[in-house]
Task: inverse folding
């Protein structure tokens, strides 16, 4: 089928797919774990167990997601060290953020009481459900060192292009979690605590396996703390700057998506439910776009590190091409099978009808969103996080203003239109600054 294309172009596309496909498969395994957690506690006699696990899992999703900068920052620095063919910097690209991850986990453990109290105050569950959720939190918080370190492991493996190993570690993490779920809950009858312990143990198993892989791949025995110069002030400042920029960007993104749900509550329970169904449909498809964005991080970082402008351009073209093709396919799929997916997700006739009314907006999300997804990947690979942070803050301000202006005029249509504008402004700001990256690359 591709025989008419130049062999070099075919090889590039195969390389992009080889990087992206394991990431996509790895991401798809995440919803499976949540479904198993729910199904396992669903075998227990009271609904409070499902509610407690749902609350606990939501809390940790938000808590740990905020530390996602450890993964993104590590990927860019690692890819550039790999591109520069510098084994010493490649080993340090793991060691520095790994130490940072361990340091950040300490306050989480020390302040777990106040964090649990403040987090559970956000929910209005029954007393028995909140008590079980508190038990879940008290156990799972001890996974923090491994969970944060696993972000660094993931970032380093992505930066070195070892996406197949990323998939294997993710399968180990989720597979062990599922098996331990079944043993602890159904065999040992530990209930919600069993689900939490399963997650804790699985996180440490995955971390141990990842550490062994990286120790061998980076040949850590050939380096020591002094040779890596882990406390080099300039490099520490760079690491902290990158991570702080990405953290601010992530918080702004979280505010935007949370505000979407908050404003939907003002439109009534029916609209809130319809938006939740539609948002979950897009969430499944976003895993594919993430795969190509993460591939862009690894390739762009490598060629920025190698100062290879030609291959940097090829990396942007190749990864974006596949992402746009996937986005277009996803949009068509939503239009064609969206009604059937809505029917699978809810049996309520009113919610089904309301969701169908706004299905076109959901189909537009991949088309509007793919550009900012890919640009994020490019900027992370190039470690140009300051521009990424500024672009997100500008986009958030425009989005909040658009919600304020459009919702009184168009209701839920105005809310969705503001979300499209948010994606568009992110793409425009990052696209405007994109030439800065290329100007910083010097051809060998």
Result:
């Amino acid at each position: 089928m591709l025989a008419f294309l130049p062999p070099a172009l075919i090889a590039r596309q195969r390389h992009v797919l080889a990087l992206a496909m394991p990431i996509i498969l790895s991401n798809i395994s995440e919803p499976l774990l949540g479904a198993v957690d729910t199904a396992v506690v669903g075998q227990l006699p009271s609904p409070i167990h499902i509610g407690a696990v749902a609350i606990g899992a939501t809390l940790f999703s938000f808590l740990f997601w905020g530390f996602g900068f450890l993964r993104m920052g590590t990927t860019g620095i690692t890819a550039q060290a790999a591109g520069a063919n510098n084994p010493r910097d490649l080993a340090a690209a793991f060691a520095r953020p790994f130490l940072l991850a361990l340091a950040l986990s300490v306050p989480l453990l020390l302040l777990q009481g106040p964090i649990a109290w403040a987090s559970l105050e956000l929910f209005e569950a029954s007393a028995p459900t909140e008590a079980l959720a508190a038990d879940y939190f008290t156990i799972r918080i001890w996974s923090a060192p491994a969970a944060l370190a696993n972000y660094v492991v993931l970032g380093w493996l992505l930066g070195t292009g070892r996406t197949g190993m990323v998939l294997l570690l993710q399968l180990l993490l989720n597979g062990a979690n599922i098996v331990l779920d079944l043993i602890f809950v159904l065999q040992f009858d530990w209930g919600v605590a069993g689900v939490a312990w399963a997650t804790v143990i699985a996180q440490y198993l995955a971390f141990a396996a990842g550490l062994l892989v990286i120790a061998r791949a980076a040949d850590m025995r050939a380096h020591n703390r002094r040779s890596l110069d882990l406390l080099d002030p300039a490099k520490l400042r760079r690491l902290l700057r990158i991570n702080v920029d990405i953290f601010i960007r992530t918080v702004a993104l979280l505010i935007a998506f949370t505000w979407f749900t908050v404003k939907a509550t003002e439109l009534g329970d029916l609209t809130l439910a319809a938006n939740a169904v539609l948002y979950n449909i897009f969430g499944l498809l976003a895993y594919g776009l993430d795969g190509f964005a993460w591939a862009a991080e690894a390739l762009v970082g490598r060629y920025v590190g190698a100062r290879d402008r030609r291959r940097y351009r090829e990396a942007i073209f190749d990864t974006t091409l596949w992402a746009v093709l996937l986005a277009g396919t996803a949009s068509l799929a939503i239009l064609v099978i969206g009604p059937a997916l809505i029917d699978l997700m809810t049996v309520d006739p009113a919610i089904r009808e309301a969701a169908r009314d706004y299905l076109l907006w959901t189909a537009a999300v991949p088309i509007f969103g793919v550009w900012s997804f890919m640009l994020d990947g490019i900027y992370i690979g190039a470690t140009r996080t300051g521009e990424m942070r500024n672009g997100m803050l500008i986009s958030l301000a425009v989005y909040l203003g658009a919600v304020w202006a459009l919702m009184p005029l168009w209701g839920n249509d105005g809310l969705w239109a503001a979300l499209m504008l948010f994606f568009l402004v992110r793409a425009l700001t990052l696209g405007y600054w994109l030439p800065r990256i290329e100007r910083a690359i010097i051809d060998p």
Notes: The radius of gyration is 22 Å.
